[in-house]
């Protein structure tokens, strides 16, 4: 049976707030995902008629980085907790991640809010289909920052960060050209199946999340080391660091994505949405670079809309392969389809690559500060370019680099996203 959960609010300020609200409620919370119901739990109802964030004493109009007293976070998170079968707690670990998102990574949150408009409807549909808590969509915020091209240092890939073997466990095809871990639909289906499997083992969503991050064996061992303890916060010190951080990051991500405006964070709209795209089917191999040139669609957009083609190239397939492009460019593609096929067959050789050194088209500018141990080949590997590129972009540089020296580099969107998200939390 699930453990009885009680929240007692004894803070005098909070009692005053309750008087202002004119209500104090005891509400039963039903866990529809277990075989029984939870007992009555003391929760605070959602504060629809009392906007705490607009209270004058809490506003900080001299800074864009809004921070609030702990009581405010506790109340807002309690309102999320009341509406979810997942326990949403507030403590110093959660507060730290709220600060990470709202202060240190505001730009990333802004981008995620824009991408949420694209991906959250997909996540909600699959979570509802599998009768899973809809709040689990915020796991993808923690996992990948909603970047379908995200690749972690450990080799986990896509929105839901599957490693190659765990992806194959759910029939996600991975080969040298195709990686269905980056397919938003197929990877979300796989994530739902994995989360359901983990819930059958642990019957506790906090432990499910820790297991999703570190593996069920790691969580089992932590429970045994803790003498059978199954409360995540009591189990905290027995888990590896990444798993410790995972649940606080999830709670904080849920809070921030639902309350971003209160921290003066507005969404950055993605360059294109699926509503403005259409699918064409190609019968022969296609290079994204050639497709981009012939249709005048930035190659980063083509890559963003078609993340499963891991080499930026549609290979020879048994059946016509789908490619998603802007709806306005479908007619252009059909007119130039033959030319796209013909040019895609021509593979660039060494001389072509050398002649194209220093190309900036459809690339994003980055600045690298030379550190101890850096040399040109090492930098070229990191930024997925060549030494010839670096020298073309930095004509005043030479092979003798100095610590603190800056180099201008131009990278494709996938490389930019990977470098930017290399420190994705937790």
Could you characterize what this model shows?
Helix content is 45%, strand content 8%. It has 426 residues and is mostly helical. The strands form 4 sheets. The chain has a two-stranded antiparallel sheet with strand order 1-2. The two termini are 31 Å apart.
Number of strands: 8
Helix and strand sequence: HEEHHHHHHHHHHEEHHEEHHEHHEH
Radius of gyration from the CA trace?
25 Å
Low-confidence stretches: 1-63
Class of secondary structure makeup: mainly alpha
Beta-strand level of the residues, as a percent range? 5-15%
How far is it from the N-terminal to the C-terminal residue, by CA? 31 Å
Helical percent range? Answer: 40-55%
Please describe the biggest sheet, giving its number of strands, its sense, and whether it closes into a barrel.
2 strands, antiparallel
Global mean pLDDT: 83
Summarize the structure.
The protein has 426 residues and is mainly alpha-helical.
Secondary structure elements and pairings:
Blueprint: H1 12-21, E1 27-28, E2 40-41, H2 70-82, H3 92-104, H4 106-129, H5 139-144, H6 164-169, H7 184-202, H8 205-214, H9 216-225, H10 232-235, H11 241-259, E3 277-282, E4 286-287, H12 288-295, H13 299-305, E5 313-314, E6 321-326, H14 330-344, H15 350-355, E7 364-369, H16 376-382, H17 387-393, E8 406-411, H18 413-420
Helix pairs in contact: 3-4, 3-11, 4-7, 7-8, 8-9, 8-11, 12-14
């Amino acid at each position: 049976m699930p453990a009885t959960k009680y929240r007692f609010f004894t803070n005098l300020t909070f009692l005053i707030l309750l008087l202002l609200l004119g209500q104090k409620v005891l509400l039963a919370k039903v866990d529809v995902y277990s075989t029984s119901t939870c007992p009555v739990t003391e929760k605070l109802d959602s504060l629809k008629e009392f906007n705490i964030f607009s209270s004058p004493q809490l506003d900080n109009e001299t800074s864009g980085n809004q921070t609030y007293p702990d009581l405010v976070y506790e109340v807002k998170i309690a309102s999320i907790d009341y509406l979810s079968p997942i326990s949403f707690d507030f403590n110093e670990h959660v507060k730290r991640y709220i600060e990470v998102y709202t202060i240190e990574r505001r730009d990333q949150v802004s981008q995620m809010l824009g991408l949420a408009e694209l991906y959250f409807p997909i996540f909600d549909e699959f979570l509802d289909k599998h009768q899973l808590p809809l709040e689990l969509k915020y796991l993808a915020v923690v996992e990948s920052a909603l970047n379908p091209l995200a690749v972690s240092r450990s080799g986990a890939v896509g929105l839901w960060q599957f490693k190659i073997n765990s992806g194959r466990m759910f029939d996600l095809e991975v080969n040298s050209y195709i990686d269905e871990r980056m397919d938003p639909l197929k990877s979300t289906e796989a994530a739902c199946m994995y989360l359901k499997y983990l819930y059958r083992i642990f019957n506790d969503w906090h432990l499910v999340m820790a297991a999703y991050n570190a593996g069920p064996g790691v969580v089992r061992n932590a429970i045994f080391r803790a003498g059978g303890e199954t409360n995540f916060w009591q189990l905290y010190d027995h888990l590896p660091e990444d798993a410790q951080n995972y649940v606080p990051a999830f709670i904080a991500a849920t809070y921030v994505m639902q309350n971003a405006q209160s921290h003066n964070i507005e969404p950055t709209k993605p360059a294109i949405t699926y509503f403005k795209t259409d699918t064409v089917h190609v019968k022969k191999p296609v290079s994204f670079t050639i497709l981009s040139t012939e249709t005048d669609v930035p190659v980063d957009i083509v890559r963003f809309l078609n993340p499963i083609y891991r080499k930026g190239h549609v290979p020879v397939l048994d059946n016509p392969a789908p490619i998603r492009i802007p709806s306005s460019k479908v007619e252009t593609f059909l007119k130039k389809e033959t030319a796209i096929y013909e040019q895609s067959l021509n593979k660039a050789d060494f001389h072509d690559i050398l002649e194209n050194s220093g190309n900036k088209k459809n690339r994003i500018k980055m600045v690298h500060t030379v550190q101890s141990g850096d040399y040109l080949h090492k930098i070229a590997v990191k930024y997925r370019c060549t030494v010839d590129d670096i020298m073309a972009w930095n004509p005043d540089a030479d092979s003798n680099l100095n610590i603190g020296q800056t180099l201008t580099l131009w990278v494709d969107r996938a490389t930019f996203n990977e470098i930017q998200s290399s420190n994705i939390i937790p």
